[in-house]
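Summary of Year 1 activities. Much of the first year was spent building the evaluation harness for sequence design. The harness presents a backbone, in tokenized form, and records the residue chosen at every position. We chose the following record to illustrate the format because it has been used consistently in internal testing since the harness was completed.
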């Protein structure tokens, strides 16, 4: 049952059509146009079929049973909306904001939800500027019972979403953020999870026959009732996707403080903690990150070419698709890190000499699947259980490395 907080204003089909016409004028810079904005309105059962309301706003509105087939909803704010049983087949919702929206029973077959934000727990502003939270009962919220057959949800953010009994058959979830999502009872046959983050996702009772999902990602999810992270129906250690997004200028300031911390041997400045930041896609090329703390950090597709990562603590970090060409990572701890598809050409993973001792680089349980490791130096590194399947290893040096149980060649060779 929905908790009704504010009285919604009912809009007619005629009123909707007129607003869409004005939005078209607004979008093309013509006289008489106005942006499509209906916050906290009742638009249930109305038709948006084939219409373009790109960058419009429907925050907190009632859109139950609305017809959005083939509609262009790119960048539209649908946060806190009630979209139960709405028809969104083949709609385009790229970068749309659906945080806290209720899509229970909606049809998303063939829809494009690339980079869409579908996380839960949003607040929206009422007509008087008072922030009010949309809440739904557990069995009637989020994505429960949705049909998303063949939908494109690549790079979508669903962390913490309620998605029980959803049909994800053939859905593209490449690089999607799926941390802690409740997928119980869903169908995911032939779905594509390449690069998806499934940490703490509940996959109990899920059909993943034919799905493209790697073992490491699957192992990070919950697949049975005996999982040690799952106690009394809840995660013992809640996982979040709330890292801080910083600007380039802010990041530069943090790096300067880290450099001071290094050069003063910790007496001044501050050690950089990458684990607290969302650095996906940022440029850190040539930066000194010696002894940086980044355990479990999100460094997907980050450009680290030429960076100094000596003695860096990056265990379990996500470096999927990152550029680490010519990086000096001697003595770094990258145990359990995900470096699938990363460019590691000429990277230096050899031991780091500290006074009269050598600090070995730790690559135990690290994933290098499909990575470019041409002329990479792993001499003397710890590589137990590392996965090099389908990696380009031409000229890679691994003399004296501990490769116990490591997979060094593609399967079938």
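For this record, the design step produced the sequence shown next.
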């Amino acid at each position: 049952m929905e908790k009704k907080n504010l009285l919604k204003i009912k809009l007619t089909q005629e009123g909707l059509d007129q607003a869409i016409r004005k939005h078209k004028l607004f979008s093309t810079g013509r006289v008489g146009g106005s942006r499509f904005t209906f916050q906290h309105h009742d638009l249930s059962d109305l038709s948006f079929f084939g219409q373009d309301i790109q960058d419009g706003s429907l925050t907190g509105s009632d859109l139950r049973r609305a017809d959005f087939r083939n509609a262009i909803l790119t960048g539209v704010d649908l946060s806190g909306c009630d979209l139960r049983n709405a028809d969104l087949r083949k709609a385009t919702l790229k970068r749309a904001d659906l945080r806290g929206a209720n899509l229970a029973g909606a049809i998303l077959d063939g829809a494009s939800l690339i980079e869409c934000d579908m996380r839960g727990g949003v607040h929206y502003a009422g007509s008087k500027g008072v922030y009010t939270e949309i809440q739904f009962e557990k069995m009637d919220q989020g994505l429960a019972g949705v049909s998303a057959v063949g939908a494109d949800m690549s790079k979508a953010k669903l962390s913490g979403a309620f998605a029980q009994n959803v049909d994800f058959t053939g859905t593209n979830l490449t690089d999607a953020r799926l941390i802690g999502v409740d997928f119980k009872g869903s169908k995911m046959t032939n779905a594509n999870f390449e690069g998806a983050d499934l940490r703490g996702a509940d996959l109990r009772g899920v059909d993943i026959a034919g799905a493209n999902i790697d073992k490491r990602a699957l192992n990070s999810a919950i697949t049975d009732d005996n999982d040690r992270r799952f106690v009394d129906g809840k995660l013992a250690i809640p996982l979040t996707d709330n890292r801080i997004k910083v600007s380039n200028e802010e990041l530069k300031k943090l790096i300067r403080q880290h450099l001071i911390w290094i050069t003063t041997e910790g007496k001044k400045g501050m050690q950089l903690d990458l684990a607290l930041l969302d650095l996906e896609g940022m440029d850190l090329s040539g930066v000194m990150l010696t002894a940086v703390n980044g355990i479990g950090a999100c460094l997907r597709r980050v450009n680290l070419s030429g960076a100094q990562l000596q003695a860096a603590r990056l265990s379990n970090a996500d470096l999927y698709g990152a550029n680490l060409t010519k990086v000096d990572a001697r003595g770094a701890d990258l145990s359990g890190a995900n470096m699938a598809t990363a460019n590691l050409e000429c990277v230096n993973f050899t031991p780091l000499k500290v006074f009269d001792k050598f600090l070995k680089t730790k690559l135990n349980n690290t994933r290098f699947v499909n990575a470019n490791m041409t002329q990479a130096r792993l001499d003397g590194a710890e590589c137990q259980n590392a996965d090099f399947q389908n990696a380009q290893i031409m000229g890679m040096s691994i003399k004296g490395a501990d490769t116990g149980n490591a997979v060094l060649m593609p399967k079938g060779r």
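Confidence is low (pLDDT under 50) at residues 1-6, 122-140, 228-240. Quantitative recovery figures across the full test set are reported in Table 2.
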